[in-house]
Hints:
Layout: E1 3-5, E2 8-10, E3 19-22, H1 37-49, E4 55-57, E5 60-64, E6 69-73, H2 80-91, E7 98-108, E8 112-115, H3 124-133, E9 140-146, H4 155-159, H5 165-188, H6 190-197
Parallel strand pairs: 3-6, 3-7, 7-9
Antiparallel strand pairs: 1-2, 4-5, 5-6, 8-9
Helix pairs in contact: 1-5, 2-3, 5-6
Amino acid sequence: MGEETQDGPVAEAASQRRLIVGLGNPGREYERTRHNLGFRVVEALAARWGMSLDETLCNSRFARSSGVDLALPQTFMNRSGFAVRCLKEHFEYVPSSVLVVYDEVAFPLGRLRLRAKGSPGGHRGMESVIESLRTDEVPRLRVGVAPEDGEIDDLVRFVLEDFTATEEELVEAVIERAADACDSWLKEGVTATMNQFN
């Protein structure tokens, strides 16, 4: 188990620094869209851990603590990998120590799926990260955003729309649970977190 300090969470077993990246699009018009759920999860982590994402580094909003770093690339979704690669090179993160959080249209709203590696599954942001880091061995937490019936007529329009009022009632709970999963990944590792949250 890790412990909390004033500077944020500390992973006792961690031998290298960790980075949690939320994917989304910069700009006020995108703040409440489904595609920005990754941003909102990382912002919730920052609030939980008393961190401020007010530093600008590698074209990202960035926060650094004694135990984990947080980043929100400001490059637009399909170029997220450029920011992640810059951060990796700057701080020499190992790819397996970088957790990427993003929306997933293949899952209903609220379902979480953590994986240690794999294909991007059609997600342009994760595709950019994998291409830029030149490895698919990057942990990722996918947070479902699909409607209950699974019917999506126009995918691009759907992810760039705000959550409906009914969905938004559930979103805060979804964000907290996803933040819990990030916390677990940091302290317990991939396997234990997959067993608990998938």
